[in-house]
Amino acid sequence: MSYYQTLSEKQLKTEISELEDRLAFYRAKNLKLNMARGKPSVEQVASSKELFDVLNSQSDFSDEGVDSLNYGALRGIPSAINFFAQLLEVEPEEVFVGGSSSLILEYDMLCRALIFGVLGEKPQFSNPHRKFLCPAPGYDRHFKIAENLGYELVYIPMTDKGPDMDQVEKAVEDENVKGIWIVPKYSNPSGVSFSDETMRRLVALKPQAKDFRIYCDNAYAVHDLYPESPDKVLALLPLAKEYGNEDLVYLYASTSKMTVPGAGVSAFACSEKNMASQIELMKAHTISYDKVNMLRHVRFFKDIDGVKAHMKKQASFLSPKFDLVDKAFHEGFDGLDIAEWNKPKGGYFVSLYTKEPIAIELVELCKNLGVILTSAGSSYPYGKDPHNSHVRICPSYPSLDELESALEVITCCVKYLSARKAEAVDEH
Amino acid sequence: MSYYQTLSEKQLKTEISELEDRLAFYRAKNLKLNMARGKPSVEQVASSKELFDVLNSQSDFSDEGVDSLNYGALRGIPSAINFFAQLLEVEPEEVFVGGSSSLILEYDMLCRALIFGVLGEKPQFSNPHRKFLCPAPGYDRHFKIAENLGYELVYIPMTDKGPDMDQVEKAVEDENVKGIWIVPKYSNPSGVSFSDETMRRLVALKPQAKDFRIYCDNAYAVHDLYPESPDKVLALLPLAKEYGNEDLVYLYASTSKMTVPGAGVSAFACSEKNMASQIELMKAHTISYDKVNMLRHVRFFKDIDGVKAHMKKQASFLSPKFDLVDKAFHEGFDGLDIAEWNKPKGGYFVSLYTKEPIAIELVELCKNLGVILTSAGSSYPYGKDPHNSHVRICPSYPSLDELESALEVITCCVKYLSARKAEAVDEH
Question: What's the whole-model pTM score?
Answer without folding.
Answer: 0.97
